[in-house]
Amino acid sequence: MKTSFKLSTLLSVITLAALAPGAADAAIGDPVPGLTPSEKALFFQGKALYEHEFTVDEGVGPLLNAKACNTCHNAPVTGGSEIDTAHLVLHFGIETHGRFYQAHEFGGPVLDPLSIAGEAEAGTCSMPPDTLPVGLPGLITSPRHTPPVFGFGLIDAIGDNDLRKLAGRQHWKDDSVAGIAHYGVEMEGIAPINEFTTQPDRKVPIGPPRVGRFGWKAQNATLFQFTAEPFNTELGVSSPFAPREKTPDGKVPLPNACLVADAQPNDVQSQDTLLLFYFQAFLDAPERLPKNGAIAQGEALFDQIGCADCHVEKHRTIKDYYVPWPDGKAHRVAALSNKKLEPWSDFLIHDMGPDLDDHRRMGKASGRFWRTTPLWGLRFKGRMLHNGSAITIDEAIAAHGGEGAASRDRYFALPMHKQERVDAFLNSL
Ligand code: HEC
Ligand code: HEC
Asked: Are 392 and 11 in contact (CB under 8 A)?
């Protein structure tokens, strides 16, 4: 199946960075065009905070994976993916009789390998970091690679109905392809932001669930949630939107010695979460390289062999996209409303077969289910797939099983020069 001699399929940021003769004016990492001056100012404040290493006094820990968002989200620039696998995030839990349990009492479901214990500022807080309960019957682990967050305001602004419709008509071309809209589970502490989310077709406060689109299993429905949550789970900073911090044995609340003085009940007020959100929401999408003959042919083949059934090119954002504003009101972002985006994803979850099964259920997505990865910005990635295991495009395609098996087989059945055109197209994204 694998064709390891095709050097052209090796993703390399170094060669690719040099690849842009006459390419787009906008650089990767820029804010979306057309922001108002105040939106742009918040983008840059948020960017600084995204790069900021939080200190113990500012609320980092007691358990953590890293002190800054861009410890992981940094390639090729702030907000990107991780170029290697140095900071894989380890999910774990217990599987018995085919059911998955989050191992809270052992520090699950996400391993925090670091703790502030021992740092001067931490005083007498002596909480140990998580250790994987190796040998525990039924233990399953799922390493997760860091995805980029370019263009995430645009993705946030896709209407739920559009994704539902896509799921409804997906099997028209190949009936083995049938993605599912994954209704995200809003986290308990997120309630305060619902008053902000007043987009016309996404305004339900604590009512029906919303269509997930963020995370490897589309487990989260809103970008705000996927800002508040990692702030808490990766950095250990609690906020009004994600107030509870994790302990290695699942016991809450935190011991007094591990609380930040004068910061009760949470480490930070709402502002820091908002700023991190603005950076992600206003970060522009990657721009593709100009088409040449090979790229255009590769794109047509990509469509013909069924890749585009899941990796859907185009979406349009809702007419009125609102974000929470620092004054507590909802604010319409014109630059993200009624805009075209080309993420090459349907944001649905698909059964990708036994080889990609991680046994880690999230909501409705069992181990074999994964969200179609957006392919925009692929040329900037050093690693692919949820666990970062693929370095070449052929490796990523070969891993497609289940609903992706038919198009995978059609790809590898193509003559070599045609496979290379598909690769040229993918490397232009
Ligand atoms: C230790 C590395 C690490 C740090 C630090 C980190 N992340 Fe992530 N991030 C990840 C991983 C791994 C995922 C994939 C999560 C999943 O779905 O399993 C992710 C996913 C995301 C996503 C969703 C991406 C997608 O494809 O839908 C967003 C948004 C995000 N992180 C924001 C943040 C923010 C904001 C911070 C800082 C508060 C942060 N991350 C800190 C590793 C990290
Ligand atoms: C049934 C839906 C489906 C089809 C059809 C499909 N893909 Fe995918 N693709 C996915 C999913 C889901 C993932 C994420 C898998 C994972 O990370 O475990 C993915 C991941 C990828 C990745 C890795 C992206 C990254 O950054 O990690 C590439 C490259 C890719 N697909 C290319 C293709 C090509 C080329 C084809 C056609 C031969 C194709 N896909 C067909 C659903 C699909």
From this structure: yes
How close is the Cα of 397 to the center of ligand 2, in Å? Answer: 6
Closest CA to 182 of 138, 227, 218, 234: 218
CB 353 within 8 Å of CB 407: no
CA-nearest residue for atom 30, ligand 1, is: 226
pLDDT at 206 over 60: no
Q: For residue 152, give the ligand 1 atom closest to its CA.
A: 29
Assign 241 a pLDDT band (cuts: 50, 70, 90): confident
Count of CB atoms within 10 A of residue 123's CB?
13
In the Cβ-directed half-sphere of 153, how many Cα atoms lie within 13 Å? 30
Q: Which of 54, 73, 190 to mutate to test the pocket of ligand 1 (most atoms within 8 A of CB)?
A: 73
How many angstroms separate the alpha carbon of residue 233 from the centre of ligand 1?
Answer: 10
pLDDT tens string 35-74: 999 999 999 999 999 999 999 999 999 999 999 999 999 9
